[in-house]
Model the fold of this input.
Amino acid sequence: QQASESEAASLHPKTDDSQCLILPPSAPRKSQATMGLNNNHIWIESDQSDAQMGKEAHFSGGVTFRQGPRHIYADEATVNSESQQLSAKGNLTFEDPLVTITADSIEGQMKNNSATLKGAQYWLKGQQVHGDAKQLEITPENNLILNGSSFTTCPPESQSWVLEANKIKIDSKEEWGEVWGAKLKIGDVPVMYVPYMTIPVSDKRKSGLLFPKFSTSTINGVELEVPIYWNIAPEYDLTFTPDYMSNRGLLSKVEFRYLMPGEQNNNQNGKLNFEYLPSDDHLQGNPNRYLYHWEHQGRINENLRVLTNFTDVSDNNYFTDFNSDVQQATDNQLVRVGELNYLNNDWDLGLKVQDIKVLGLSDKPYQVMPQLSFDYRFPELSNNLNFDIYSEVTNFAHDEDTHNSATRLHIEPRLLLPLYGPAGSFTTELKLYQTNYWQRNGLKSLGLEKSVSRTIPSIRLHGQVNLERQTQLFDQNYRQTFEPQIQYLYVGYQDQSNIALYDTAQLQEDYYGLFRDRRFSGLDRIADANQVTLGLTSRLFDESNSEKLKFSFGQIFYLRNSRVGLSNNELANQPSSSVLAAELDAHVYNDWYVSSEVQYDTKLNETRKYETTLDFRPEANKLFQLSYRFVRDLVNSNANTGDKVDIAQAGTRIAWPVKQNLYFVGDWYYDFKRKRSIESYAGFQYESCCWVARLSYHYRIRTNFNDNIATTPIDREQFESGIYLNFMIKGLGGSGNLGISDMLKDSIFNYRKPIYLTD
Amino acid sequence: KQDDLKQDLSISAKSQAGDLKNNKLSYFGNVKITQGSIKIHADEMSAVSDEKSGHKVFVAKGKPATFSQILDSGELGTASAYNIRYDSISGDLVLKGGAELDIGGSKMKAETIRYNIENQHVTAASSGDGNDRVQTIIPAENYQEARNKNKKSSSKPKTKTEKKQ
Amino acid sequence: CGLKLQGSYSIPQELQTMSLTSQDKYSKLTRLVHERMQLNNISIVDLNQSKPRLNLISDSLERSTLSFYPSGNVAEYELMYHVNFTIQLPNQEAKPFQVEIRRDYLDDPRTALAKSREMNLLVNEMRIQAADRIVQTIAAFKQ
Done:
């Protein structure tokens, strides 16, 4: 189902946080700069001045000093033109685009723009970062070096935390700071001492300095995670996170990230992760647990894209047991892939190697070693007649010698004639699937042949009519459309039982599947077809022509049963029509949205799949959702017992601001078949001006995989529950609210794994 | 320059009045005085000189009256005010009322400025009511290069560097 | 019952000629949006200030979990395809939009390679849906 596309309600609210704004002291007086001024002059205004021309000039009485963008206000100042030295004291305020400083005294070197202030208090412009320093030095490169200093983002009247340090260096260009001898004090209790660390001074790099995560859970026991962020250079940074678990030991996680910026945003980036826990106390035999991961992605130039990804772990349940930075247990595969794609207007060339390690499964999929794909699109032949050719050659390999290997060459020319008008469309598509296989050490017993050639034609005719009328619903005018569709598909037949299955499986049937010309993914099985698909879509558009409701349904009628299947027993009792698939997406009433999908088996008169979601999204940080899913007879492949099981699961999610800066996030998912809850999460996030605290309770099902690392097969815990306390600094880079988007991500249903697109 | 005061002095004006008793000469209307590199231009000018000591005091008034002199360093020093008083013995030049002084690129603007030509010592003061404060501009020579190095800007602006003596 | 053939694409008058720019001008999405605009006879011109502009900023794909087997293994995943783009009328502020297309698909670790092919197929279908929604957003665009 698909969400409506109105401007997404972002989860970063603009609540009133005026009391969080920390304003530096404003300039003590206005200047009357009447004389023409350019950057390479020093301009001074005062009540009196006493100067020895060319040597030293002394100013007193409300002195205002300006050099380029810099202003200094003081009671008295002395400028030595010969040595280009400046000194001032008395109610001293220094201001430039980066920082506002009040201090006892200043010694400035006008030649190279540097200055040293004593007894300083500083406020970074446009941020909540401020503090004081016994001595503050402004370097020629406009960086700040603070000795005997403090750093905080809390407003002066409620100083919840402060970072005291022997030395802080703030790089104004890269907007990050290095801290030597850092002592974190909460209230005025010293809590943490770090000899050296770096802190982001704006949200340009890392979001907020991550502070300790504290939790107790039924399995890992008491857990303390302290991320230390180190900004090595503008393009590299490293986060070292010791993660101590009382029941297991100390897991050290290191994440090194690198950027390779190119021009016209042809950038590449990547990261390296190492995670290691020596002798896990919780498991029999105290095995070592480790992970290493490398990913690299980006654009080398306008046409060339690159992607590499490799992960390996010590055992299948690594992600189940640990809170890894790389992925979660719900991703049950370790993808090892390398891709190079060269994209162009008329043709694309792709090179790919791929191996997938499936956690907990003994038999492994074929490896693609390599695959070369070439897609050529001829410029439009005559009026909108399109011709393109997709081709690929793939070499399949396999570790175990029980499986054969093969090379497959596939060429798929396609002729497409779309006739498109507002009243409807008629599309003709002619395709030819030409595939050749060279199967090596093919097992005669499986009926495989050394070389196979398969040539299958396909014709697809798709017609659609767009009808509309004005109508009224709840005294609102709508434009209602009716769009009936009919598609005829003919695909030739060829016996393919002499071809092994390399990258082919049954495609899922949903509304969009009704109009596909393929029944199987991959290329090893092209199902013959002689079928008609009927479908109808109806939409409601409001006066401003935005879609408020869309309802579609359809069904395939097989004029002739397909004679190609993945295994022969499957072909026996085939139905004469597909499931009736329907989809509804509606923006029902101001902030209520509903979307649901159903697949109904008209032959057996039973629902194959049903799912619906009701959303109430009035504004940012406010969400109420109810969802229910039912799927019949799913093969639980992990248990590889092949038994069929039904999924019946309901869920609710709530995110609601309780008070001005106190949010509640909760969700609860229940499995009707086993009559137990799968996940329940309740979390409170308190957001003050300069820190965020999050206290949550999380009970969830664990994804366990068969494993053999522990000496004796242990029955792994099926559920885990824990209390989690998370504390984060806020106020770096503007004083906006953090919102709760990352709190929502804690739930196992909400964790969103990014998948990099290379085309 | 140092020997300006030894040069001969020429004065031109529309009209002239003499008050021999107090040894005071007054000139009115577009008064121009030159002595060596010193040039004074004013609406009204009076000069009181004491024969014995050769002590001369000039008082020029104008809207504004102007004074300029080529300094030993070769630079031009200019001054202007509604009332300029110059004392030849002490070498003090006192500018009162919208005073402006420009010596070797360093400019100064105030209610009253006292500039001693011999020792190049300048003091200035505002009238205290806050709206005509002393304003001083000092050219910082290689401030520009420092900024360029900082900004790595492509175009390099030309800077005229005034020599200091 | 008042039904009649749809007369026009209902693209607002001032948006019937637009320029199409993209952060990734050779990507499949850019090509699909270009095709869809032409099919809805929006004529595409080079970037110039006097014409409205559709700018494709980014597209991204994410996967999350929808349901679990009793054993705790994942039964269904959900793919979410996001496109961020802006529509800008001549000398006016560019207005940001986001389109999100969701599709759920079954997981079957025994056919992991086939499932990764299926995912590519689904992503291409979602791109076509996203291109259609972008043209719909143009049709519904009001300053």
Q: What stands out?
A: Chain B touches chain A at residues 103-104, 106-110, 119-126, 128, 131, 133-144, 146-147, 149-150, 159, 164-165 (CB under 8 Å). The radius of gyration of chain B is 19 Å.
